[in-house]
Fold:
Amino acid sequence: MLEVFILLTPKERLKLALQREAVDRPPCICPGGMMNMIVEEVMDMTGSQWPEAHSDPNLMADLAAGIYEQGGFENFGVPFCMTVEAEAMGASVFMGTKINEPRVTTYPINSVTEWQQLRKIHVEEGRAKVVINAIKILKDKNPDVPLIANLTGPVSLASSLMEPTVYYKELRKNSQTAHQMMSFVTENLITFGRAQLEAGANVLTLSDPSGTGEILGPKMFREFAVPYLNQIIDSLKDLADVGTIIHICGRLKSIYHELNALTSDAISFDSITSVKQVAENVSGKAIMGNVSTFALENNTPEKIKSISKNCIDSGVNILSPACGIGPRTRMANIRAMVKAVKEYE
Structure:
């Protein structure tokens, strides 16, 4: 059996791990999107830098491949922020700097009642097209490496299109219209996700940091997060032949029951949540996580290796950072995560 495992490619290993099948060792990945994988050191190594790489498919592809080629995470993944969809739907975006990700600066609407003013995502223009073209480049770089498509979760996208505090209030005060907006947002996410997968990506990651149990509470998470997350996964899972991942930030204790209703292959979560507790309370899903990104940026490779092994011992099937890594994180610390899985017994 071990002889068969030795032949596993990174893509094959991730697919087996997502299906909770036996593998030689856990994969070590960082999807991209909200879970950004790019660090300043790799920008310098590749000559491709932010913010230019957010708007150029060749630079974007060079950065995504650069992490893997420098002994880092065992996947490719684009884009490197959560603003592509919001910008395509009408938000104004500051493109950031070499060490700061893009961010929304102006919302296109002021209330869920204005959702019909939002633009549809057109995958043949703007930065959506950049992402699609970067995927087309990446799919030919190394077919043995899993290529991850990334979508901003529906709650997070909706709260990037209007003032978040107003959005959360209107979920309760104007729920019927809020559902209409959520349906529109979800339809556009499916369009963008399908285009990424048809371009050559084979894994889908949905990251919804604003759709947490702490912010929404179990009832609202069940009403406004679960059905729309599942609609996206169920619409696209046949195209994501390696598998699907949902990332939720914050403490998950209050929504364990709801997490069991998600239809993704894996659940990814923040370092504030116990791996053992998730493994005990969420069934039927691969567990992904959850190396602290604060530790990853500020500790030594030896400490990161120890933290990584503890994550695996606690029950993760797929080792990954707990959230988006800081661009000043050292490659030596990222390599320490990969070394931890390669040496794991």
